[in-house]
Predict the 3D structure of the following.
Amino acid sequence: MPPKNAYDEFTKGIWKENPVFVQVLGMCPMLAVTNSAINAIAMGFATFFVLVGSSTLVSLFKHWIPKQVRISCYIIIIATFVTVADYTLLALIPEVHKELGAFVPLIVVNCMILGRQEAFASKHPVGLAIADALGTAIGFLFALFTLGSVREILGNGSLFGISLFGPHFEPWVVMLLPPGGFIMLGLILLFFNWLKEKRASMLCEASNLEYKI
C-alpha cells in the first residue's frame, strides 16, 4: 500500500468520501438546521472548528491516552471544543445560536467527529490528521450549505435573507419543514449516486478500450 499524503487525505473528505453525501453521517444536524443558509453555515463552521481542533489534540496525545479509556478521552476533548464553539456563537451571533438550539451541544455525539478520532487521528501523525479533518469538515460544510441554500431558496424565495424572486414568488413552504429536508436530501443523494455510477461506468469503458488496444 502506498504511503498516505496530506493532499489525498484532504481531498477525499470533500468529495470522494464526503461525510454526508457518500458516508451518510451527521444526518441529525443535516436535516434539523438546514432550513436556511445562515444556519447551515453557522453549524458547519462550528463543526469545522470542533473536528479540526479535536483531531489535532487526539493525534498529538495518542501515545499518552490509554487504550482502555480512549473513547472517554476523545469525548472530553471534543466536548471542550464544542463548549468553546457554543459560547462563541452565543457571543457573536445570538440570534443564530438561538435558532440552532441544542444542536450545537449535540456536536459532542456526532458520529462523524468521534469516528474520525477513532479511525484516523488516533492512528496517524498530526499533519495527516489535520488534513483529514480539514477535508471532512469542508465536505460537511459544503453539504450543509448545499441543502440549506436550496431549502431557503425554494421555501422562502431568498438566500441569506435577501429576496431573489420578488413579491410574486409563491414559496414552497414544505421545504422549510422536516419533510422538505428529507425530500431534498434524498434528491441530492440520488444525484451523487448517479455521478458515482456514471464515473464508474466511464472508468470501466476506458479500461476495456485500453485492453482492446
Observations:
- The chain has a mean pLDDT of 89.
- The beta strands are 158-159, 162-163.
- Residues 6-212 form one domain.
